[in-house]
Write a structure and sequence with these properties.
The protein is mainly β. It contains no helices and 11 strands. Strands 2, 4, 5, 6, 9, 10 and 11 form a 7-stranded mixed beta sheet that branches. A hairpin with a 4-residue loop joins strand 7 and strand 8. It is globular. The termini are far apart. The mean pLDDT is about 95.
Length: about 130
């Protein structure tokens, strides 16, 4: 089992950057594939990015490709999401999630594919 805690959210102007962190507890963080989702006001939770447990493979939602970068440091038991060139439509609560299953090269985009969740961190982008 793993517990997740996000941090790094805040208020930023359009075009700005933020780095979100997801700190994990437990000894098996390195065995989990990690992902970030977000949920905007009045919207469903949507996939943002995912990274394989090895850190060697990633995939992104089309809406953030080229602007966001997911990474992880297994020694620090932390996953990251670097947000750049932010737009007002990126405003949302951002959640990290852990998947104990096998890595699927086609991508796991559904919230139900993930076993553990953090409580989220708010990102607000002003125009």
């Amino acid at each position: 089992q793993v517990q997740l805690a996000e941090s790094g959210g805040g208020l930023v102007q359009a075009g700005g950057s933020l780095r979100l962190s997801c700190a994990a507890s437990g000894r098996t963080f390195s065995s989990y594939n990690m992902a970030w989702f977000r949920q905007g006001p009045g919207k469903e939770r949507e996939f943002v990015a995912a990274i394989r447990w090895t850190g060697g493979s990633t995939y992104y939602a089309d809406s953030v490709k080229g602007r966001f970068t997911i990474s992880r440091d297994n020694a620090k038991k932390t996953a990251y999401l670097q947000l750049s060139s932010l737009k007002p439509e990126d405003t949302a609560v951002y959640y990290c999630a852990a998947d104990s299953g096998s890595w699927y090269s086609g991508g796991k985009y559904r919230p139900r594919d993930y076993d553990y969740w953090g409580q989220g961190t708010q990102v607000t982008v002003s125009s």
